[in-house]
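User: I'm putting together a teaching handout on how multi-component assemblies are represented. Below are the sequence lines for each component of a complex, exactly as they appear in our records. Could you produce the 3D structure of the whole assembly as structure tokens, so the students can see both representations side by side? Please keep the chain order the same as the input.
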Amino acid sequence: MRRQVVLFGDSITEQSFRQGGWGAALANAYSRKADVVLRGYGGYNTKWALFLLHHIFPPDSARPPIATTIFFGANDAALSGRTSERQHVPIEDYKQNLRKIVLHLKECSPTMQIVLITPPPVCEEGRHAYAKSLYGENAMKFPERTNEVTGQYASACVETAKEIGVFSVDLWSKMQETDGWQKKFLSDGLHLTPDGNAIVYQEVIKIFNEAGLSADNMPLDFPHHSEIDAKNPEGAFQQKCF
Amino acid sequence: MRRQVVLFGDSITEQSFRQGGWGAALANAYSRKADVVLRGYGGYNTKWALFLLHHIFPPDSARPPIATTIFFGANDAALSGRTSERQHVPIEDYKQNLRKIVLHLKECSPTMQIVLITPPPVCEEGRHAYAKSLYGENAMKFPERTNEVTGQYASACVETAKEIGVFSVDLWSKMQETDGWQKKFLSDGLHLTPDGNAIVYQEVIKIFNEAGLSADNMPLDFPHHSEIDAKNPEGAFQQKCF
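Assistant: Of course. Below is the structure of the complete assembly, with chains in the same order as your input.
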């Protein structure tokens, strides 16, 4: 059976197969080598993600994924007392939930490569402009997320990854290294533009390569067409498939 | 287990998760509803595809795909006696091979929705310009594919679909309804631009909708985040998952 790479996360994962999306780019890179499986849940935080964990990653699976990205935090970091309060998860709970997710995956497969991805930075102006485009003057006056608080969740995510010995992508920091990240990488102050998606793709592929999952080093599932002898095609297929 | 839609074909399928690709667009449309599985084999014709058939679609699978697109013919239609001769498959064999593929899938699952897609039209000038960009003055003088012959394969594909009672997309005809299809839809006279990918996506989605596989009518796998009561999240998950 084909090996699987699972993308587990919130809307930024759910949207990762849109035009220019990082999930689609991964699926393209692993074409004929591994299936990239989309498990993105818009609006979800780590607390709600826990309810899905045993369904998406059954403990007794005969073929657990070879790698999983875990990409939550943008909703956990929504501020208490503001319009997105219902999505808020206290930072210590966020860390604990990430730990639970990773430990479950490790139980499913001790060899699975796990990558925690921090939430991207937040552009508060971009969020406000987006809210105004939806609700006009009724748009929230106070931000429902701030870049500062999301940064604390990003640090918590990186720390947790270190503590439990898995990979992490510090997307929050990485994106802010580029001038104009607010519009270059974010479409509405939170979700990703194609350029923002490209950063996620590059960072995840870099880690997969480090982790021994380079697509270039994986065998093709079946012969490359140039290896097939038109007069005796059976030859190439006998060698590779049977 | 999640339902699957398999995309089985040649390079035009293999490249369908590139930027603007029709496969990625399908995966996005069926997010949280069905997994779109990429089985594209660059350079393959229907004769070689037969060697993969029982591996990709094992007859005893407990969960066969709910739908499969079969998208071959661009290589079968390569001309005998020209530079891509090794990929050529006589038109009667092409029909017979398509039939074998469909009959095998019907055996795997009598309820599977099957869509045959014809090869796209060929722009001979575009192919020649592409060959010159690779080989300069050594580029082939005679086309390795012509639009006319590819059109015969497209008709054969549509006929075969009718004879065995499965859906088809006549991509060859559909694309040529638009002025300037040669550059608008084809990047090198044969493979698809993002606009060309959009046509494939639209035509396939139209058929899936007709066939009762509209993503809009399929249930979400887990509760939408707006249905989750932040104070009692268990409620939403008990109802949907357990």
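A couple of points students might notice: The CA atoms of residues 7 and 69 of chain A lie 5 Å apart. The beta strands of chain A are 3-9, 34-40, 67-71, 113-117, 167-169.
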